[in-house]
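ok trying this again, last paste got cut off
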Amino acid sequence: MEQILEKIGKLTLQHDKISPEVIRDKDIKLGLRNPDGSGVVVGITTKGRVTGYEMVQDSSDPSKKKLKPVEGRLYYCGYDVNDIIAYNEKNKRFGFEEVVYLLLTNVLPNKSDLDKFSNSMHKRAKLSNIERRIIIEEVENFNQMYALHSVISHLSRCDKDPDTNDFAKISEQCMNVIAKAPVIVANNYNVYKYRKGDDLRLARTRENLSVAENFLYMLRGQIPDREDALMFDSCLVMHAEHGGGNNSTFTVRTVSSSGANTYMALAAGVASLSGQFHGGANESVMSMMKHCQKEIKDWNSEKQVRRYLEKIFDKKAADGSGKIYGLGHAVYTISDPRTAVLKKYARTLAAKNNKLELFNLFEKVEKIGPELVMERKGNYVCVNVDFYSGLVYKLLGIPEALFTPIFAMARTAGWSAHRLEQIIQGKIIRPAYISPNYEIFEYTDVNER
C-alpha cells in the first residue's frame, strides 16, 4: 500500500505541476489574479467594497496602467465600516444587528425597524430540541470549525422545506442561520469542554442582551463587562463582510449559483474559512507569536525581533513555512482599515490585563515584518485583520479554538447577503480551465502498459 501511495504522489507532482512559462504563454489567471496582483473581475455586488490600490497611468508606458497602493478602505453597501464603528464607539452602542440588517437590505434601519429586527433575531437564535441534540449527541466537537460545519449542514433536518425556491423562505433560512450561529459556536465549545471532563452547560440567550453580549455570556456563564462586549461587537461588525471576491464568500456564491440550498451553501463558506490562508490565519498568527515569545530573549530589542523574523523568512524558525503570518492581503497594500481598530482594542485590553509587554512585541513585529518583505520581495504589505484579532480575543478570555469560528459566525451575515444577491442574479458560476497541451493518447490494454 505504501508503495502505491508513494507512486501516486510522484506521478501527481510530475503531471499536475504547471511551469510558469505555460502559465504566462497561455495567459492563465491563477487564483483569479491578474499578473499585476489585482483581482479578475467576475461579478458585481452591492454588499461590500474593498479598496487598497488605484489603477493609474504607467508613466513609462502611457498605453498601460499600473497599481498604485493607497490606504485601505472597507465599505458595507456604500458606508465606510470605520465610520460605523466610530459612531458606535462614541455612543457606546452595539452595532452588529444593524450591520446584518444593512447587508441583507442595503439600507440602514430606522429605530422601529431595528428594534423589530433585533427582536426577531433573538427569537430565531433559540435552539430547538432537535438542534440541541445535534450539538450534544451527533457532532464531533473537538475541532470547532468541523463542528460548526457539521451543525449548519445538519440544520436542514430541522427545516420542513430545506430545498425551497421561494425567495422569502430562503431569506428566512439565512436569518435563522445568522441568528443561531453564535449560539451554535458557544454551545459546541461547551460540549467540547464537557467531553474533556467539565460539567455540561448548554446556555440560552437572554432577551435584554445584544448578540455580542449573549455570545460572551453563553461562553463565560456570566454577564460580560460592557466595555469588553462593545469591543467584541466591533469585531463582529468588522468580520461581517468583505466583498464578493474573498475565498469563502466566492465559495458561497459559487455553491448558491448551482441551486444548492442555504445550509449547503453556508456550510461551504465555513469549510473555506477553515483554511490557514483565510480565516484560520489568526490562529497561525498566535502560534507564530508563541514561538517569538519563547525564542526572542529581549522583547524590547528590535534587533533581536528582526533577527528572529529573518529566521522565519528563511524557513529556519516557527513552523518552517517561511511565512510571517498576519502580513499581506490580496487587496490591501498600505493598510488594512480593520487593523487600526483592532490594534487600539489590543492596547486597551493589554493595559487592562497587565500584558503591555506582549502587545509591544506584536507592535514590533507589525513594524519590522513589512520592512523585511519590502527588502526581500519589493512588495508593499501591511498587517491584516488576522494579526491583532487573535490577541484581542485572547485578552478577552476567549479560547484560541474559537478564533476562527467567531470569524465564521460573524461572516454568516455577509455570506447570506451574497447568497441572496447571487440567487437574484441567477447565473451559475463556471470559469474555464484549459489543458497545458492538447496531446491525445491512444488507450491501450492494461497488460500492454
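PB: full thing came through this time. Residues 167-195 form the longest helix (29 residues).
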